[in-house]
What we know:
Elements: H1 29-62
Bound molecules: zinc ion.
Zinc ion binds next to loops.
Amino acid sequence: xxxxxxxxxxxxxxxxxxxxxxxxxxxxxxxxxxxxxxxxxxxxxxxxxxxxxxxxxxxxxxx
Length: 63
Ligand SMILES: [Zn+2]
């Protein structure tokens, strides 16, 4: 799992972050919401990147 404060990787089940000492709270709903929201943005950006790449290819082919 990753520290919600500094993002350091910690062993699953660890109570405190090895990097910054923050209390780790596994399976917190807020974290799940954030990850889901973040995944949505990642998919949106990936989709826009694909569309942009196709547009560039189309311009190169037909110009
Ligand atoms: Zn930390």
